[in-house]
Design a protein that fits this description.
- The protein contains three helices and 14 strands.
- The chain has helices spanning 3-18, 45-59, 229-248, and strands at residues 24-33, 62-68, 71-76, 89-93, 101-104, 109-116, 119-126, 133-141, 144-156, 164-174, 192-198, 201-210, 225-227, 256-260.
- The longest helix has 20 residues, at 229-248.
- The radius of gyration is 20 Å and the shape is globular.
- The two termini are 33 Å apart.
Length: 263
């Protein structure tokens, strides 16, 4: 085993043994995405600039991960969320979603509250086992020493034919914060994940508060139509096809712009 990896595990278990059972913290993450977009040639230059500005705000968000040794809640910072925009409706074909994501590491399950076209769903399922490969590289993020890990996973391709593609995920985690957790659906490393990148998406931790004076309460979301992940995916695909069909028919008079975000 690589020396750096041995050090990572030693730091993780040594630090974990010294931390009380009520260990908790709050991590702030900022998302960024490089945009490689081909717009309809019929759009004016001014309209294209407006769309690009809207998309930049859409992808540059701030999320809060509240965690302890067994549970976490990941959600967008509502105080910094951009206001909804009127005018043209922009349909962006991207993976992911909004809402609260609760993870229970002890019970290996998650609950995600998602809003799909105005209807709230409560997605409940088992956590995936991420087959991380620990690498030997290290770097500092803030005051924390981080170790590199990579993951190969199958995701939907950018095509509309239901095909798949392999995606490489790169994570940087720190054993100095001994919780096997991180942003979005990523977890399972010997330390908190401070940075995640895949395709053109980057999620970077900008602030961490450990064991704050005020006791943290982590509550899983409870409202919404209960479904598992497969059921929710099927519903989402159906709704997307309905929207595409409506768009091709001209919709209800609204101006619709369909975009493909390259990764």
């Amino acid at each position: 085993m690589n020396t750096n990896i041995k050090i990572a595990f030693l730091l993780f278990f040594t630090t974990a043994s010294l931390i009380a059972q009520d260990f908790q913290g709050v991590a702030t993450y900022k998302t960024q995405r490089k945009l490689d977009i081909k717009l309809d040639s019929t759009q004016t230059e001014g309209m294209q600039d407006q769309i690009m500005a809207m998309l930049k705000k859409q992808f540059e968000k701030t999320y809060i991960l509240t965690f302890n040794k067994e549970e976490s809640l990941y959600k967008e910072d509502e105080s910094l969320a951009p206001p909804s925009t009127g005018g043209a409706m922009v349909f962006v074909s991207v993976m992911g979603g909004s809402g609260e994501l609760y993870k229970n590491m002890k019970e290996q399950r998650y609950v995600k509250q998602s809003d799909l076209l105005g209807k709230v769903f409560l997605v409940q399922d088992s956590l995936k086992t991420n087959a991380w490969k620990l690498q030997g590289e290290t770097k500092n993020i803030g005051t924390y020493t981080c170790f590199k890990a990579t993951l190969e996973r199958e995701v939907d391709s950018d095509m509309d034919d239901g095909s798949k593609k392999m995606q490489t995920v790169t994570a940087w985690y720190t054993p100095q914060i001994p919780v096997s957790n991180g942003p979005e659906e990523f977890q399972g490393l010997p330390g908190l994940i401070l940075e995640i990148s895949y395709d053109s998406q980057i999620i970077l931790c900008s602030k961490i508060s450990l064991n704050p004076t005020k006791q943290i309460k982590i509550k899983q979301p409870t409202s919404g139509t209960a479904v598992n992940q497969s059921e929710f995916d099927a519903i989402m695909i159906k709704k997307m096809k309905e929207m595409e069909s409506q768009n091709h028919r001209g919709g209800d008079g609204d101006h619709v712009i369909e975009l493909k975000i390259g990764g």
